[in-house]
Design goal:
There is one protein chain. By secondary structure, the chain is α+β, with helices and mostly antiparallel strands. Helix 11 links the parallel strand 11 and strand 12. It has eleven helices and twelve strands. It has two domains: 121 residues, 2-Layer Sandwich (Beta-Lactamase); 174 residues, Reverse transcriptase/Diguanylate cyclase domain (Alpha-Beta Plaits), CATH 3.30.70.270.
């Protein structure tokens, strides 16, 4: 029996999630390695303490201190029902960490509640995405050539847009997938330095003519992605896409011996309930290729 307990302890200790047990008095009886890693508190600091001591000091978006007023462990031991909630825990170093908490009652063989188990993991929902965005701002998130956001930052913004789809209450997010037409021909004819300057010209035109809250980034090569935040209508989506298409077509790069112009092909769509990052990006990508097949320098909305 003891060997079985040691076996399961090793498994739980090596979980990515934080896991801890409490008895009926909410005294912590077990604290795994995942809980140490996420919270910064060691098992020596936590075992024997009551969750009433409020070391984790859970707060929600309203600033309510849940360990004091709405403890999920206490609630699940009272009615036997599982609780799941997004909160911010207090790290041992003083900062706040977004976590998804799940509290479940523990029962003996006769069905009596003898304690509870709580698991918590770094939140991958809305709060976790916003925390990640904040952290990313302090890393390399700009494209070195064009000065706009890079793909890593775009990925994080897309996760935020997908996570926030339900609470937006009618404020739809739009997505534009943009590709420079005949870019390989520009590189092959005028050289990569000129191609780089065309990329910079297009990026600057896009950046200067999008709305303040929109996000522009370089997806890769000659491809760009725009996240149009708080977009309300499909007509607005088409209007913005046509506007920047026209402006790029009317931009000009003056070189010593020639003036280069270029065009872009765009796919435009609205983020829909049930969309994932992959589904919405793939949809705009297909729409962009539809514009290519239609003769380039066009917008396809879907």
């Amino acid at each position: 029996m003891i060997e079985d307990q040691d076996f399961y302890k090793k498994i739980i200790d090596n979980l990515y999630d934080g896991v801890y047990f409490v008895d009926r008095d909410r005294v912590i009886t077990y604290w795994n390695k995942g809980a140490e890693r996420i919270s910064g508190y060691t098992s020596q600091q936590m075992i024997g303490r009551s969750c009433r001591d409020n070391l984790l000091n859970y707060v929600n978006l309203k600033g309510e201190q849940l360990c004091i007023t709405h403890c999920p462990l206490a609630a699940c031991m009272q009615d036997g029902k599982t609780r799941e909630i997004d909160v911010f825990l207090h790290h041992a170093d003083g900062h706040r960490v977004p976590v998804l908490v799940r509290a479940e009652p523990l029962m003996d063989g006769e069905g009596n509640i003898i304690g509870a188990v709580e698991t918590f993991t770094r939140d991958t929902g809305v709060m976790g995405v916003h925390q990640e965005l904040h952290e990313l701002r302090h890393t390399v998130i700009k494209d070195k050539l064009t000065g706009i956001w890079n793909r890593r930052y775009l990925d994080a913004c897309l996760r935020a847009a997908v996570a926030e789809m339900a609470p937006l209450k009618g404020l739809l997010t739009g997505l534009l997938f943009i590709d420079i037409d005949h870019f390989k021909q520009i590189n092959d004819t005028y050289g990569h330095e000129s191609g780089d300057r065309v990329l910079q010209m297009v990026a600057a035109t896009l950046q200067n003519n999008l709305r303040k809250n929109d996000v522009l980034g370089r997806w890769g090569g000659e491809e760009f992605l725009v996240i149009l935040n708080d977009l309300v209508t499909r007509d607005a989506l088409k209007f913005i896409a046509d506007k920047i298409r026209m402006l790029v077509a009317n931009s000009r790069l003056d070189l010593p011996t020639i003036s280069l112009t270029t065009t872009i092909s765009l796919g435009a769509t609205l983020l829909l309930p049930g969309d994932s990052i992959e589904s919405v990006v793939n949809r705009t990508d297909r729409l962009m290729y539809k514009s290519k097949k239609a003769g380039r320098n066009k917008v396809s909305v879907g």
